[in-house]
Design goal:
By secondary structure, this protein is mostly helical. Helix content is 89%, strand content 0%.
């Protein structure tokens, strides 16, 4: 059976995503603190609503995994309420968790690069792994600086990916 969707039929999804990322990225660069605060608040609202939906699903679906739905729902509701109740503290804490996650992931990726580079005698890959280690050590040693810089870094990344997705959408439309 042939797929009736052509590339031109969903170009607008890439356009919307690109414009959204471009807009949020620019807002993060222009008004970093307010935009970061608002994004964390939106995350809290999402967690709260998602937690309520998970609890409702227990009664609607009547599945065997109701315990997981209850746990996930309670965690979502609690997380949402905490973020909305303590907005400044939760913004800092969520950014700190993100920095720690990025640092741990980077150390793992750096180790993989060093090992793979050593096995294939690829000097560039070994250097990339070492550079990742140095960057991740910086994240751990300077957590406050990392938390303060993270929204700007995300803003730069989202502006770039927003431009790429927007350009792709126009290319797909042709």
């Amino acid at each position: 059976m042939k797929n009736n969707l052509s590339r031109t039929s969903y170009w607008w999804i890439f356009l919307l995503e690109g414009l959204a990322q471009l807009t949020i990225g620019l807002l993060l660069l222009v008004s970093t603190d307010i935009t970061t605060f608002l994004l964390v608040q939106l995350m809290g609202i999402y967690w709260l609503i998602r937690g309520i939906i998970m609890i409702i699903q227990i009664f609607l679906k009547k599945e065997k995994d109701w315990g997981l739905l209850l746990f996930g729902g309670a965690l979502g509701i609690l997380s949402g309420i905490l973020v909305l109740r303590y907005p400044i503290f939760s913004t800092f804490i969520l950014l700190e968790f993100l920095v720690i996650f990025i640092a741990i992931t980077g150390i793992i990726q750096g180790t993989i690069s060093v090992v793979r580079g050593s096995m294939s005698k690829s000097f560039g890959e070994v250097l990339l792994g070492i550079a990742l280690w140095v960057a991740c050590i910086f994240l751990f040693v300077n957590p406050l600086s990392s938390v303060m810089a993270l929204p700007v870094i995300i803003g730069i990344f989202w502006v770039f990916t927003g431009m790429v997705l927007t350009a792709m959408s126009f290319y797909m439309r042709k």
